[in-house]
Batch of 4 targets.
Target 1
Amino acid sequence: QSVLTQPPSVSGAPGQRVTIPCTGSSSNIGADYDVHWYQHLPGTAPKLFIYGNINRPSGVPDRFSGSKSGTSASLAITGLQAEDEADYYCQSYDSSLNAYVFGTGTKVTVL
Amino acid sequence: EVQLVESGGDVVQPGGSLRLSCALSGFTFGDYWMHWVRQVPGQGLVWVSRINGDGTTTNYADSVKGRFTISKDNAKNTLYLQMNSLRAEDTAVYYCVRVLGGVSLHNEPYDIWGHGAMVIVSS
């Protein structure tokens, strides 16, 4: 079950800025659990792109940034590049479900 | 190099059983929590189960509780997922994932992923 909601798709031209919202509730993001973001290319292993709401692992370009406020979080990509085309998932923990939860996923398309 | 390699995926009939394995290399297995996450083709990621470093604590998603069992053999550097009473809705790619160490409980991100094992439940 996906208790974190994301738009199915976002798109932008090369060089533009896009944001992917991740909407949760008072039992997950709003309960102050951290939000993490993963990039997933079909047929490959998902890759951690943002952890602890705002932190980038080594090797992730600094055009990717994360933020969190209240019951929502977002991933921003500035200076969009063709290689950024992928599916992106947010992830957190839900205290009502006692489960780790993922967002519904967003496909980023570079026009 | 830190690496996770799943195996054991197969086609199985409804009601059948299957055991997935995940071979680890490049880190000390006993120091980390490990999880299983699955993805139905064309759908999103779903958490399945987790186990702590010494194998004494396990947790499961409600959808698999009572049917799946997670375990580990630290000496063999291998994580397992025993799946019984399989249903069509268990058809998915199953990923073995490592949790980033040193992070407070329930705030851990998944820093290392395997490439997945495909399980198909069909008659």
Target 2
Amino acid sequence: DTAVSQTPKYLVTQMGNDKSIKCEQNLGHDTMYWYKQDSKKFLKIMFSYNNKELIINETVPNRFSPKSPDKAHLNLHINSLELGDSAVYFCASSLLTGSEQYFGPGTRLTVT
Amino acid sequence: KQEVTQIPAALSVPEGENLVLNCSFTDSAIYNLQWFRQDPGKGLTSLLLIQSSQREQTSGRLNASLDKSSGRSTLYIAASQPGDSATYLCAVLNTGNQFYFGTGTSLTVIP
């Protein structure tokens, strides 16, 4: 059973388009996260939700909007995609904020 | 702002050697520190999590230590194997609920 899953695994799209990445966890965790890993492999947190409530919102463009319909899901919607948005996006979850994090396999987004 | 640095950036060792990976952070007001491994094209796998009140954690051939006052953590890998080849990342959770990842160490274990 996959603990943290993301779809799609790969996403290629053109500048200006709007796209969504979905994340689901079946671990019963309360906290979920979105991270961006750039071309230099540096990981940076974007958002964190605890029980559907936003608790961390790092400095990211407001073109990025997370949505948590329930505590098992945290989706990432991106409007007006730009070349600089190309990266690997990772979803993660933890039982509580600050406890051990479990990562999804990542979504490689390429904007052309 | 917290800065997390890992040295060396890359390391190559022959199979069977013991090795140490280093992680340093500038702000000692941390809640915990977690070590991960990342295989090429894959997500991160959690290895060890050390709470700020702890000095070390062990799992199999891995031992992680934490010296909060000096802003350092080490990951010790005993009897390295080719399957240990991966990028190792440390991540710090500040008391303000802010996460910071290190720059990573790419480890290659040569058979």
Target 3
Amino acid sequence: AQSVTQPDIHITVSEGASLELRCNYSYGATPYLFWYVQSPGQGLQLLLKYFSGDTLVQGIKGFEAEFKRSQSSFNLRKPSVHWSDAAEYFCAVGAGGSTLGRLYFGRGTQLTVWP
Amino acid sequence: DGGITQSPKYLFRKEGQNVTLSCEQNLNHDAMYWYRQDPGQGLRLIYYSQIVNDFQKGDIAEGYSVSREKKESFPLTVTSAQKNPTAFYLCASSKGNPGDEQYFGPGTRLTVT
């Protein structure tokens, strides 16, 4: 069965510092991988996704993520964090077969940014 | 503007009452989804539908019901059988193919007292 683990529940960084949010997945075939961001009381917004091809994926708001098959990971990175990046971040893996279109989400990582 | 509408933003009900949450999309998407979000739990799938007049249970369907009579609409009813209904509910839609991203509505916060 598909699953996603986000090992860090809460991360705090200073504004201007680099950021890496970890995501590990479990899936038998080539996965479809996503990162979403959620501001308090809002819906989720897609940051980026990996479908195939280049393992380094660029997204919106200066985020990027790298797919590493050998480590079953899809970590999200940003070189310099802004205060507006404070939010909750969710990693998700997409399934095929009979559950076409279904996504499996991790529990999320809450990001706090210190000024 | 194309998107997903959820109404209302906040909903209050007394225990023992059924309540229906609205979800409408004008993205012409085939698939629609309902999630429940609780602090620290991430998103848990309640029901999903890949075509009109068909839907499947997700991981936490007990105490919930849905219908999909129109492509644009996927209402969720929280029944009195749901033991702990207070939560944030998110609706999403997608084209329904493997690898397609889901687009989310703004959510409805339901409080049952």
Target 4
Amino acid sequence: AQTVTQSQPEMSVQEAETVTLSCTYDTSENNYYLFWYKQPPSRQMILVIRQEAYKQQNATENRFSVNFQKAAKSFSLKISDSQLGDTAMYFCAFIDNSRDDKIIFGKGTRLHILP
Amino acid sequence: DTGVSQNPRHKITKRGQNVTFRCDPISEHNRLYWYRQTLGQGPEFLTYFQNEAQLEKSRLLSDRFSAERPKGSFSTLEIQRTEQGDSAMYLCASSAGLVSTEAFFGQGTRLTVV
């Protein structure tokens, strides 16, 4: 079964610091996509960043970057220069297009950015 | 088009009643997903559609749950004979194209069964 594991239920960092959120996943497939979604309090989920498994280069989006280790099935999210608006639940997610397009989510990491 | 729209935003119902939620996806998005999210947890997959065809249903979706997307546009999720355990946020998401690389989520419908 395909699973996504986020081992950090909750984290807190000071504003302007860098923080890394961990994610591991399990699949026997070779072609898939990985995502980090952000869910601010009482607001809808939005995509932060995505990574295609066939691409070796780590994806970056402004202050957000990933460390994709395919062999280790690891997909961590780094937030640089953290801002108060980064406070949210962060979900790691996986989709395997060769089997179905069902998006599998981890249980999330609640991130608090402290002023 | 302002995104995925879900109605109602909140629903309080008595145990045993039926409820129906609606999701309007982004125009021309052919894929539509339903998820359930309980407090502090990640979204759990319920079902999804490719146009009007329902492609998969989760084991979480008991016989009391049914979803439709009759014309390949909006979708409804109905829960019959609601139970307290059905209390959750129900999320809808849509995506475009045959290869789903990004899903856009609605704000969800929060169901409380009393």
